[in-house]
Each structure stands twice: as C-alpha cells, then as structure tokens.
Amino acid sequence: MILNFFALTITITKREISLEKALHDEYVKKIFEENRKKLTIIFVFVNINLVN
After folding, report:
1. N or C terminus: which one in the chain shows less Cβ crowding within 10 Å?
2. DSSP class per residue in 20-37
3. Domain count of the fold of the chain
C-alpha cells in the first residue's frame, strides 16, 4: 500500500495600507457605483424607446 501525503502551508500576512490608499479605494468604489447606476438607467431608457 502506497500513501502519498502532500503538505500545504498557507501563510497569512496582514496587509498594511495607508490612510490615503484606503480613502482612494473608497472614492474609486463610490465613483464606480455611481457610473454603474447611470449606465443602468440609460440602458433601460434606450431599451424602452426601442420597444415603443
């Protein structure tokens, strides 16, 4: 009987991010969500006009 054992080591490190990076990421996320909502509204409007 042959037994094969594989050892998997996972190292978890805490990422240190600066306050500026965190604020920038939040700003980018906010802008992305706003643009997604605008595009959704435009897409719905265009589709309604194409149907009529």
Report:
1. N
2. HHHHHHHHHHHHHHHHHH
3. 1
